[in-house]
Each structure stands twice: as C-alpha cells, then as structure tokens.
Give the backbone structure.
Amino acid sequence: MRTLAFLAGDTPSRAVLARLLAPWSLPAGAEDPLDPRGKGFLVGWSENLANALDTSGFCAFSGAGLLVDGVATLDELARRVLPGALAGAEEPGRALLALGASVALLQHAIGAGLEHEGASSPRAPIATADWARELFEADGAWPDYARRRGLDAHGRVRRAAWAALGREELLRFSPIEGEPAPDRSGACRADAPCSGDVLLRAHGPLVRFLGSSARHALDGPLRVDEFLRALALRAPRAAPFLVASGRPVPVVLRDGVGLSEDELVHPGDVLDLVVAISGG
C-alpha cells in the first residue's frame, strides 16, 4: 500500500500511468481504482518496487512519489538506490524490480511454510475475510496475480520460479509484463494517421448543440484538446461548452475512463462528453 496507492489512485490519467510503467504494457482497466481488471499487474509491480526500495533502505513512499510526479524515471531512481553492481546494469530499473520480485517470492514461500509446487500435502490456506476474498477473486484478479508471481493453485511457489530466484529471469513470472491494450475496431496506431468517424455522446448543455449521439469525421489521431478545438470550430454554438481559455471544458470519457487533454482520440472511438453546470 505504500506504493500501490500512488499508482492506482494518484496518477491523473491512463496515459501517465502507462508512461510510468513503460516498457510494460498496461492492462485494460488498470488505471481505475474501482475496476478489478489489471490489479494483479499493479499489485505485483508495486510489491516489486516496495520490496526493492525496502532492501535498499530508501523510503518507498518517497520513491513512488518521485516516479508518479515525473521527477525521476525508474532507471534514474534505480541508479541512485541500488548497490554498485546492480546500479551499473544496462537496465537498472529492471534490476530493481527483479530484486523486489525475489523478495516477494520468498515472502510467499515463508507464508506457505516453505512448501513448493509438488509437495504431497499442501498447507491449509490462510483464513481470509469474506469481503477480501470477493475482491481477490473478482474478475480473476487473484488467479492472474498468482500466475504472474509464479505461484500454483495452492499459493505455493512453482519450481520454475524457484529456479529463477535472484535473477532477472524471474520477471517473466512476475506481474510486470502486463497485457496488450484492447484492440479498438477502426482505431489508428499513435504513429499511423488515418481517417474515420468518432461517435460522440453528449451530456448536459452540449446536447442542445451536438445532439445526444452523433458521428463526427476525424483525420487522426488527435489529442483531446486538439479534437475539442476542432469540434468547436465546426459547431461554434457549442464552443463555450467545449473550450474555455484554451482548455477543455467537458470531461471526456472513453469506455467509461476519463481522458486527459494530452491523450489521443482515434477514428473509431466512442466518446462521452460530460458538462455539468453547478447550481444550488
């Protein structure tokens, strides 16, 4: 919790979180604290980071804050806190996470009574509160975590993971590989411009000017702020509810997830534009 809260709660957008965890891809839903999807990935990555920082003696709170605030990259942080031999690695950030993954695997081994895969009598599972068990099992969060951590169905360390203990090879079991982002039909890659339509669903006062649901042509991809400015030029009556002082007015959602102004809108996207006017 000394690092996960920064990742799952304090990052301003999916794009920022994805950049933070690069080069590993971010699972769908991982950026939403209330969505169980992708949490096996984030919990494992956070475990690796916290364990490694604890081993180095550096404050895990401070380390996570430096990463999320963009003050340091993972490699830069690793060079500062790792002992000399590891700090000089070609990919020190990876070495840092591998160190933490080894500590996590040993923690699981101790929790399971140092049993390993194939033991004749698996230890009875540690009692878990009903509410916690429901969260663990939601959408396969716990099985996904166990698979990535190198544990079997009983929570014991798999032989192959044991064999990789203390080496970077352990990261192929550890939850830092992520899942490929979902393929959106008709979407462009960030580096491959294309043309198409974006389906806009307007909410609040925007409905009067854009309709509740309408398609708009896009030569993209475009950043959210660029897309809204282009839309304001096409629909000048809606402009005050789209852009003010050069900044986006509506909350822009894709698949229920808020987008920051620097994230990309692609042809094929379905976006909700939400404007709420305060009153009382």
